[in-house]
UniProtKB/TrEMBL annotation:
Occurrences of domain PglD N-terminal (ranges): 4-69
InterPro entries (UniProt xref): AcTrfase_PglD-like, Hexapep_transf_CS, PglD_N, Trans_hexapeptide_repeat, Trimer_LpxA-like_sf
Family the UniProt entry places it in: Belongs to the transferase hexapeptide repeat family.
Name of the protein described by the UniProt record: Acetyltransferase
Region forming the signal peptide: none
Annotated organism of origin: Hoeflea alexandrii
């Protein structure tokens, strides 16, 4: 894919997405961010200049903020695209939503379903028949076995693994290095080996 790409989010994750986009052939890349002075402009500026871009992706690591921004852009018919690093291995039978990012060495297996705005971060894997909801983040080095189910906005911490067929409810955060062997409810924090429910997410955490 070549052309002009707008990335909303000029932080560390945005730069990872930009690297993948450049390797993948996008030749002009502009950052937009409300909080980074070096960005070309704010979200408002991006909304005003959408017709200058061939593609737009939201590169905000926090799942709720990424979702909010993507839904806002969708109301303005932004040309949302997926950025898949050329070293990512996506099965031909996997189904990807829009605004998906697959980092270097990420894998999505046969018949996997990856929701809008999901992040498959560096060297993570999502195996066959898994269903990954919208705005999920699979952090670097996390591995999901076959036929797992992740609700909207789930966060799987760096280096974690999830046993086959396990289901995790919306917005739940699984801590770094966890081993998930049982289903987890929505809107909670869980971690450890085996991963256990620790507490519910606070209203404040659910807002960020
Ligand atoms: C490219 C990128 O960088 S992507 C980013 C990748 N980063 C991640 O995946 C990080 C995921 N986040 C975590 O693991 C966090 O520790 C969370 C969300 C699980 C918990 O965060 P908090 O609620 O703030 O917990 P906090 O740091 O206060 O720790 C509370 C206790 O839990 C323990 N704890 C926290 N996380 C873990 C974990 N993953 N495994 C085991 N114990 C943990 C702490 O040691 C502490 O124990 P103590 O009370 O005995 O001292």
């Amino acid at each position: 894919m070549s052309g002009r790409l707008a990335i909303l989010g000029a932080g560390g994750h945005g730069r990872v997405v930009a690297d993948a986009a450049a390797v993948g052939g996008w030749d002009q890349i502009a950052f937009f961010d409300d909080h980074v002075a070096s960005a070309q402009g704010t979200l408002a500026a991006l909304l005003d200049s959408l017709n200058e871009f061939d593609g737009v992706i939201v590169a905000i690591g926090a799942n709720r903020f990424r979702r909010r921004a993507a839904l806002h852009l969708a109301t303005r018919q932004a040309p949302m695209v997926n950025i898949l690093h050329p070293s990512a291995v996506i099965s031909p039978s996997a189904r990807l939503g829009t605004g998906v990012f697959a980092a270097p060495l990420a894998v999505a297996g046969p018949n996997a379903e990856i929701g809008d705005g999901a992040i498959l971060n560096t060297s993570s894997s999502v195996d066959h028949d898994a269903r990954i909801g919208h705005y999920v983040h699979i952090a670097p080095g996390a591995h999901l076995s076959g036929a797992v189910f992740m609700g909207t906005g789930v966060w799987i911490g760096v280096g974690s693994s999830v046993r086959e067929t396990v289901a995790i409810g919306d917005w739940t955060m699984v801590g770094a290095g966890s081993v998930v062997v049982r289903n987890l409810p929505a809107r909670c924090i869980a971690y450890g080996n085996p991963a256990r429910y620790r507490r519910d997410l606070s209203e404040e955490e659910l807002e960020c």
